Amino acid sequence: MFEWITGLLESGGAWAIFALMLLENIFPPIPSELIMPLAGFNAARGGTPLWLAILAGGVGSTLGAWFWYVIGVAYGPARMRRVVVRYGRWLTLTPNELTSAEGWFARHGGAAVFFGRFLPTIRTLISVPAGLAQMPVGRFLLFTAIGSFIWTGGLAIAGYVLENGYEAVSHLIDPLSTAIVLGFVALYVWRVIRWRPDA
């Protein structure tokens, strides 16, 4: 995968970085933990300039998050509550928990969106409750963009600084990303098993 993504970034430049980061946020085929360091690595070797790689990655990531925000807005809290009543076990959520989550998000939504940009899987999913909570789109995009640019910029700079050393550690990135995702899957299965309806 290392050489495939590197080749794609070399041939597609900033557009490839933008497209991969957009897709990573809509339906994560390849984690940003792999895309952006490779974009930085490629920049250090004379490819897409680092500033442009960070810009393309940040914009792609922000627009991908905005896609799920729009889904949340369109779906609406009333419809979501009906879904929770019907499919609560598989969502690992009860109506009371949904009410609590809505209250928490109303108080801490900006921080949740910002910090969610740094967590695998969460950075995709956090946009939906933001939309459901009707967070103002300007506020959502602001927190999303700041978090996205910090995250993508940090990863790209790391790849740029490492350059030759990046190939030596690249084989560790896939297993680490996989382990994090598997951890979230295990947590989900545990919640499904432990789920109980509201009394």
Essential attributes:
single chain; mainly alpha; about 200 residues; elongated; 9 helices
Structure description:
The chain has 199 residues and is mainly α. The protein has one domain (2-194). The chain has helices spanning 2-26, 32-44, 50-75, 77-91, 95-116, 122-125, 127-132, 137-162, 166-194. Helix 1 crosses helix 2 and helix 3 packs antiparallel against helix 8. The radius of gyration is 18 Å and the shape is elongated.
Helix content: over 70%
Assembly state: single chain
Task: Give the class from helix and strand content and strand pairing.
Answer: mainly alpha
The N- and C-terminal alpha carbons lie at a distance of 49 Å
List SSEs in N-to-C order: HHHHHHHHH
Q: What is the helix tally? A: 9
Shape: elongated
Stretches where pLDDT is under 50 for at least 5 consecutive residues are: none
* Relative strand content: under 5%
The gyration radius over C-alpha positions equals 18 Å
What can be said about this structure in brief?
By secondary structure, the chain is mainly α. The protein contains nine helices and no strands.
Chart the SSEs and their pairings.
Blueprint lengths: L1 H25 L5 H13 L5 H26 L1 H15 L3 H22 L5 H4 L1 H6 L4 H26 L3 H29 L5
Helix pairs in contact: 1-2, 1-3, 2-3, 2-8, 2-9, 3-8, 5-8
Keywords: Cell membrane, Membrane, Transmembrane, Transmembrane helix
Protein name: DedA family protein
Main location: membrane
